Amino acid sequence: MIEYKRLEEDITLSDVKGHSAISNFTKPFMLDRRRIKGAGNRSAKLVDMKVNKKEDYLDFYFLSEGTYSFDVKVTQEPSMELKKDNVYDQRIRILDFFKLLETKPNYSQKEVTKQDIKEVLKTANCKLWCSCPSQIWQGLNYYLTQLDGSIIPTYIAPTNVKNKNGKIIGWKSRHKSQGMICKHLDLASASISFFLPIMTSKINKYLKKS
User: What pTM, to 2 d.p., does this model score?
Assistant: First the structure.
């Protein structure tokens, strides 16, 4: 499990696959979503790719429905206010893509292979985002921000309070400083092997046309 103490480390796709980036508290909700909506290759849909060559990153856009209802609340940028919608937006940003690709021997953009692209995707640092309230308001994006792993940094830390019986409750005690992504990002990341050929194909088409 990825702990808060790993603040000095960068994030790669390998760090968030295999359900290694969710807390023990989030895991039952992830399993419930998987039961209802299916694995990440069914519960999330890759809908777009945007390239920022100047800043050297690629953004992959995914959409996923709510687990229990089509009427959900999503986080708006940059205010972080919630509004009604019917899908959540997940994003995976691949950093330094062209810089890494150009390290290939005898590099030529027109001659890059799909295998070259796939290797870069697996090794590059990445940043993540989900518009679901849990990612922001439970403090998960706060932990992700500490790793410089959030596309949209936030500083809404999870807190604890004492209830009337003196018991400590709150998101901090529930997540126990474990995890940094919600169930939606987790399921999409867990199916990254399924999405990699699609991501690679989109990049390959872009490179051939550029």
Answer: 0.89
Domain that holds residue 24: 4-209
Around Cβ 97, how many Cβ atoms within 10 Å? 21
Distance CA 134, CA 165 (A): 26
CB 27 within 8 A of CB 179: no
In tens, the pLDDT along 43-54 reads: 999 999 999 999
Count of structural domains, the chain:
1
| Residues 138 and 157: beta-carbon distance below 8 Å | no
CA distance 153 to 141: 7
